[in-house]
Amino acid sequence: MEVFSKELKATDVGVKLSFPTHGLEHLDFAGSNSVDLRVKDSCGELRVIRCWKRKNGDHDKPVLSSGWLKFVADYGLGVGDKVVLLREDDHSLGSQFRIEALRKIVLLGQKAWGEVPRAT
């Protein structure tokens, strides 16, 4: 189940990733303003990425912070690439989510999203 997908902007690849508020319904903050997400990347590596809620007027705005920039660097992500966060339990790894990095490609004259291989 998709939690969110987003085409990356400069702030997303250089500072933190804000994502649509509807993604909050898939996260359990247990009364706190932050939660550490246990995320499996496309190489099967377990990552811990912190999500916190910041107030934006009347509603909370979710942001990925700690651990996010390492993911960006490991996959060489840039402006215009896309990230997809999916709800997916992997009991053997202990993860609750899977994260995908995608890049626009042209295949037989058609634009499509292709998986980004790990850069490092």
From TrEMBL:
CDD domains: B3_DNA (cd10017). GO terms for molecular function: DNA binding. It comes from the Eukaryota. The keyword Membrane does not apply. Its main location: nucleus. It is found in: Nucleus. The keyword Transcription applies. One of its GO terms (cellular component) is nucleus. InterPro entries: B3_DNA-bd, DNA-bd_pseudobarrel_sf. Keywords: DNA-binding, Nucleus, Transcription, Transcription regulation. This is TF-B3 domain-containing protein. It comes from Salix viminalis.
